[in-house]
Write a structure and sequence with these properties.
The chain is mainly beta. It has one helix spanning 65-69, and strands spanning 9-22, 26-38, 46-51, 78-88, 92-102, 106-119, 123-134, 138-152, 155-166, 173-183, 188-199, 205-212, 215-220, 224-235, 242-257. It has a 15-stranded antiparallel sheet that branches. It starts with 8 loop residues before the first strand and ends with a strand.
């Protein structure tokens, strides 16, 4: 998924229709969405969350399970939940979500998330922990760490590391991603990212290496963006032969969300 599921900010709705071409598979299309809305008269303690981008079950940020495993539709569940902010401090958050996964039949799901962050002039560090329970898939847990280092006012690098274990995963799943980004102007950003996905069952092995070259441009004010992202996948299912692909995405953003790009 291309919408970052863990963005900071106030209430917002983000909708991103997309079309993607993968060599040997043809065209695919879909819509990513996430809405986070502060409920009135709750002192920002309760939020309504509706999304099909769920960071607690994806080992690589910005990549869906269907991208990692070539299983079409494997990550198309929609989740609707109420989020309670148990602790809401400047550098530490503790949230509890209760809601439903739609598969399409509704399935109860509960999630506890803690997050610690630290930021100074050139660095931003953040670690997140997730514990989940879903009536169909059982228990799951994920630990992630991400770091951003600003090289200049217009350039930065990012590192993301995650470990995931659940009753439906193939043992422990590991995601590692490294990216570099540069603002060409106030409206355009160009980046490069490379990611590695591995797991421990049936044996410890690499499953996929993914390379992306994202280009992002503001189309209209602060609520309409175009993204063009060519890339190459090297997957075990394809004997690590290169599979070129390209994504076209138009994102509509309503509200206040801080962008990573």
């Amino acid at each position: 998924r291309r919408l970052e599921a863990d963005e900071e900010g106030k209430s917002y709705i983000a909708i991103a229709p997309q079309i993607e071409f993968v060599d040997g598979e043809g065209f695919d299309q879909g819509v990513d969405f996430k809405a986070k809305i502060d409920l009135p008269k709750t002192q920002n303690r309760l939020k309504l969350i509706v999304e099909n981008v769920q960071e607690d079950s994806e080992p690589l940020p910005g990549f869906s399970r269907s991208e990692l495993r070539q299983v079409p539709g494997s990550d198309e569940n929609t989740n609707a939940s109420i989020r309670l902010a148990i602790v809401d401090l400047a550098d530490f958050d503790l949230d509890f979500d209760t809601g439903l996964d739609f598969k399409p039949q509704p399935v109860p799901k509960f999630r506890l998330r803690s997050r610690f962050s630290w930021q100074e002039e050139k660095w931003r560090l953040r670690t997140s922990q997730y514990a989940t329970y879903e009536a169909d898939d059982g228990f799951g847990a994920k630990v992630s760490f991400d770091a951003r280092r600003y090289l200049s006012p217009r350039s930065w690098v990012e590192l993301d590391v995650a470990v995931l274990r659940s009753e439906t995963s193939d043992g422990f799943e590991f995601g590692n991603a490294l990216g570099a980004y540069h603002k060409l102007s106030n409206r355009r950003t160009l980046g490069f990212s490379a990611a590695v996905f591995s797991q421990t069952e049936p044996e410890s092995r690499f499953e996929a290496v993914l390379v992306r070259l994202p280009y992002r441009q503001k189309i209209w004010k602060d609520w309409m963006y175009l993204k063009i992202e060519p890339g190459i996948d090297f997957k075990r299912e394809r004997d690590f032969n290169p599979d070129p692909r390209i994504l076209f995405e138009l994102e509509f953003l309503f509200g206040d969300r801080r962008k990573r790009l």
